[in-house]
């Protein structure tokens, strides 16, 4: 492992009582500060799910059982046979669609144009019945957040999750 990080924070009501940051940056004799950046890998899925669920909760018209097609513009084409998929199907990895991991290597792939690739994907398991891990569907979930929030996913995570913690 090239990098590791640990943070200890104690809170009492809204006051931070003690805080300590440490990592292998300490071994390298580089200071770890609140501005130090670390890779988070698949923890971004937790942020993605938290943001999308918060947005759905804040919106009276949608919830986890909302069909994905109802969040999209007319003309949206989902993975064939997945037209009835809900938000929770995406977040719970119940789409039955393989991950298509190599698709992430395409430098032209964006959150917005990912949906255009869906028509070329196939399903291998029943919708809502089986667990099949998919980074691609979580990428699409971040796009749903952008549609609901009107800003980039990064801006939304900052404003809806991180800033309220300050």
From TrEMBL:
SUPFAM superfamilies to which the protein is assigned, alphabetical: beta-lactamase/transpeptidase-like
Domain of life of the native organism: Eukaryota
Entries under InterPro entries matching the protein: AmpC-like (IPR050491), Beta-lactam-related (IPR001466), Beta-lactam/transpept-like (IPR012338)
Record-annotated membrane-spanning stretches: none
Gene3D superfamilies noted in UniProt: DD-peptidase/beta-lactamase superfamily
Domain Beta-lactamase-related: 29-165
PANTHER family: BETA-LACTAMASE-RELATED DOMAIN-CONTAINING PROTEIN, D-ALANYL-D-ALANINE-CARBOXYPEPTIDASE/ENDOPEPTIDASE AMPH
Protein name according to UniProt: Beta-lactamase-related domain-containing protein
Organism whose genome encodes this protein: Mytilus edulis
């Amino acid at each position: 492992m090239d990098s590791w990080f640990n943070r200890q924070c104690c809170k009492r009501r809204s006051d931070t009582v003690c805080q300590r940051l440490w990592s292998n940056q300490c071994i390298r004799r580089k200071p770890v500060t609140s501005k130090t950046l670390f890779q988070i890998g698949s923890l971004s899925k937790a942020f993605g799910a938290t943001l999308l669920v918060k947005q759905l909760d804040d919106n009276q018209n949608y919830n986890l059982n909302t069909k994905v097609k109802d969040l999209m513009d007319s003309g949206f084409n989902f993975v064939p046979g997945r037209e009835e998929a809900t938000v929770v199907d995406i977040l719970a990895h119940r789409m039955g669609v393989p991950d298509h991991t190599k698709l992430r290597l395409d430098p032209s792939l964006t959150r917005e144009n990912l949906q255009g690739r869906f028509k070329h994907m196939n399903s291998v398991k029943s919708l809502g019945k089986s667990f099949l891990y998919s980074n691609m569907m979580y990428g699409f979930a971040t796009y749903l957040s952008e549609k609901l929030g009107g800003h980039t996913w990064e801006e939304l995570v900052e404003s809806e999750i991180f800033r309220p913690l300050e």
